[in-house]
Amino acid sequence: MHRKLLVASILLMLLGGYLIFFRSDSKVAAPPPNAASGKTGSIKLGGDETGKYTIDNQNSVYFIVNKQRGLDSSFIPKNLAAIGGNQLRSDAANAMSQLITAANVDNINFKIISGYRSYNDQAGVYGAYVKKDGVAKADTYSARPGHSEHQLGLATDLGTGTCDLQTCFGDTAGGKWLLKNSAKYGFIVRYQKGKENLTGYQYEPWHIRYLGIGLATKVHKSGLTLEQFFGLSPAISY
Ligand SMILES: [Zn+2]
């Protein structure tokens, strides 16, 4: 009888202790209100968007490639279309054609300097830069093969003949137009000024990345890098 009481008491104490621990633990674990909103308004960060957008599939228009996330050397986009002497994935090519037409109305004449580049093309481009400037410098402005958005067929370098492929392009009418209007056509300026320590690349006001109008608009309005938007770590090194 005493032993049964003792066992029952011990069980009750254990249960009580568990409840106290569990309750205090859940209090500690409760997130502060509006933790996810911060300065970004209604956009939820930290992976909530990942479920909506397929960022891990190379064939997805949302795939994120950076110094930490590579592409297969054999990856070639399935639906490349010709545009301006280059190639882009067909949905990006259609959007690019609309962007160029709209800019023309504003008296800005963009030409496509670079679109899709194969893995081998990128190896050639990167290798030449390494020869010229060394690895450390080249890595600030050129992707290693397998890490370029150009291999995705979703990135375009645009120029107007003024400050082409130079940071001063950002101060030209063309550069300003791209920053302001790209998202309306589904593109974002991917490597922005002041974000070098987040993107791992120098400021490239001429390099725009296709994401579709919906996601491009959200990312543009958030003011975040693509990595930040999806709660990924900054990709500053390989
Ligand atoms: Zn580029």
How would you characterize the overall build of this protein?
The protein contains 9 helices and 6 strands, in the order αββαβαααβαβαβαα. The protein has helices at 2-29, 90-105, 119-133, 135-141, 149-152, 173-181, 196-199, 213-222, 226-229; strands at 80-83, 86-89, 111-114, 155-159, 187-191, 204-210. The strands form 2 sheets. It has a 4-stranded antiparallel beta sheet with strand order 3-4-6-5. A hairpin with a 2-residue loop joins strand 1 and strand 2. Helix 3 packs across helix 4. Residues 14-47 have low confidence and may be disordered. The structure holds zinc ion. Residues 114, 150, 155, 157, 207 line the site of zinc ion.
Mean pLDDT, to the nearest integer, reads 85
The main β sheet shows up as: 4 strands, antiparallel
Span of the ends, CA to CA: 69 Å
Q: Bound compounds, please?
A: zinc ion
Q: What is the C-level CATH assignment of the largest domain?
A: Alpha Beta
Number of domains: 2
**How many beta-strand elements?**
6
* Strand content bin: 5-15%
Element-level helix/strand string: HEEHEHHHEHEHEHH
Provide the gyration radius in Å: 24 Å
Low-confidence stretches: 14-47
Tell me the overall shape: globular
**If helices are DSSP runs of H or I spanning 4 or more residues, what is the number of helices?**
9
**Which CATH architecture of the largest domain would you pick?**
2-Layer Sandwich
Main structural class: alpha+beta
Placed side by side, the strands forming the largest sheet appear as 3-4-6-5
CATH topology of the largest domain: Muramoyl-pentapeptide Carboxypeptidase, domain 2
Percent helix range: 40-55%
